[in-house]
């Protein structure tokens, strides 16, 4: 058997959530950086002193550690067995701090060097990529979503900001298993693409999307009354989430299909005029 090179070995390693969390903690709480004032700062002490008051998610929390605890991460400074969601939650808090640090705090006349956040952002981004996710920019800040080339193609083709944001939000890591959040996003997407579903040919992707929107407790109350469906009453959350994901994927493919139809028309016209 041929020996693997170091790049193959590293790329095939699975992320250990606890070890990855400890890496983040080191760059957040332990590694010290010399500021422009010759004092030393850890990322956490700098955030607490100069940035925390600017973070829109701080609410009634009084410090970074207090906020992290409020986000559901227990005893952040101690070594515990952690889950992937713990890494992503801490990463999004760090990203929020980075994005809301006043620019005047960097460089000459500021408190820290311009590249102060370089190390911790590198670690966040590496972990995110190694878990098959990516950092996406939303109006309210950066979030972590699954890596999905087909979804990204649909976003690029849609040319609709509201639709693009909804497509990204659906794949946010925290929405895995969150039926109500996914249903809410799909309902929003259904309203946006409504014109595309009118007079859809039977068994087409548009027809399938319309059927799923009408039949899985999204557009209508399918649990009782006029639109009641027995299968909805009996379906558990795991099964329902699978169908919601099928609907999401169908919407993504519908967006791409519509673009292909437009291309087909252009090609037909081109061939007619250039035979």
| Number of DSSP helical runs | 13
Number of strands: 4
Gross geometry: elongated
Sheet of most strands: 2 strands, antiparallel
> What number of domains?
2
**What's the helical proportion of residues?**
55-70%
Mean pLDDT: 89
C-alpha Rg (nearest Å): 24 Å
- Regarding quaternary structure, how should these chains be classified? single chain
Strand content: 5-15%
Structural class: mainly alpha
For the record, give the distance between the C-alpha atoms at the N and C termini, rounded to a whole number.
55 Å
Listing every helix as H and every strand as E from the N terminus to the C terminus, the arrangement reads HHEEHHHHEEHHHHHHH
Low-confidence stretches: none
Strand order in the largest sheet? 1-2
Give a brief description.
With 275 residues, the chain is mostly helical. The chain has helices at residues 6-12, 17-30, 43-51, 64-70, 84-99, 118-130, 149-158, 161-170, 179-192, 194-197, 205-215, 230-234, 237-273, and strands spanning 33-34, 40-41, 133-138, 141-146.
Give the arrangement of secondary structure elements.
Elements: H1 6-12, H2 17-30, E1 33-34, E2 40-41, H3 43-51, H4 64-70, H5 84-99, H6 118-130, E3 133-138, E4 141-146, H7 149-158, H8 161-170, H9 179-192, H10 194-197, H11 205-215, H12 230-234, H13 237-273
Antiparallel strand pairs: 1-2, 3-4
Helix pairs in contact: 2-5, 2-6, 5-6, 7-8, 7-13, 8-9, 9-13, 11-13
How does this structure look, described?
By secondary structure, the protein is mainly alpha-helical. The protein has two domains: about 5-145, no CATH class; about 150-275. The protein is about 55% helix and about 5% strand. The chain is built from 13 helices and four strands. The strands form two sheets. Strands 1-2 form a two-stranded antiparallel sheet. A two-stranded antiparallel ribbon has the order 3-4. A hairpin with a 5-residue loop joins strand 1 and strand 2 (about 40). Helix 2 runs parallel beside helix 5 (about 85-100) and helix 7 packs across helix 13. The longest helix is centred in the last third of the chain and has 37 residues, at about 235-275.
